[in-house]
MltA-interacting MipA family protein
Amino acid sequence: MDVGQIGAAVLSTPRYMGADQNRLRALPYFSYRWANGWFIDGLNGVGYAGSPAPGLRLGAHVGVSPDREESDDPALDGMGKVNREAEPGIFAQQRLGVWLGGNLSVRSHLRYGSGEDRHGGQAELGLGWGTRIGERSLMNLGLAANWANQAYMQTYFGVTRAQSASSGYEEYETRGGLRDVRLSLTFIQLFSPTVTGLLTVSQTHWQGEAADSPLVRDTRNTLAIAAVLYRF
């Protein structure tokens, strides 16, 4: 069966990766999933997902990598612009069973194509645990780690010689490695068969050379999302 969702969300997000201040935004949301496995949504772009075995979900998609503007924060003055790029990816999720009264799953996500040279790549591995906390209420906990290659790290956390000259930061060359560890908590409230409320809070802890970057003003970034969605 085809399923679509429209709605609105209010987001509090870091001004850039490693910023010490957040910005508040209101955005529309749209997603649609066809019965044959194709989907489009505001998080993963356009893609296809299927379930070749019980509890296993595999998929591929083309999303968009994050951009960055000097105007996003005074700390970025002289750093230039990072453009959005098409970012293909593949993902997998496997249900592991019931643990402590909730459903435990493991997931992985590979993405490639970000950065100025479009060679930036990421690999994410995470655990999820979800349970009902009421007749119409759900809670999900998540723990994930993200690794990035040198091209990605240099784009978002490095400082080239030219950027050093224009920004005043010391030149900073990065290598690939562990980028961050992220904790997340999500509450879902089913108001009716067609209307859902969602609240998500996550905290990212920057690691390694990402945390040591002169651009990183805070090694812990918090993101919060509140949304109301209508299913059709």
Q: What stands out?
A: The helical segments are 150-157, 161-167, 208-211.
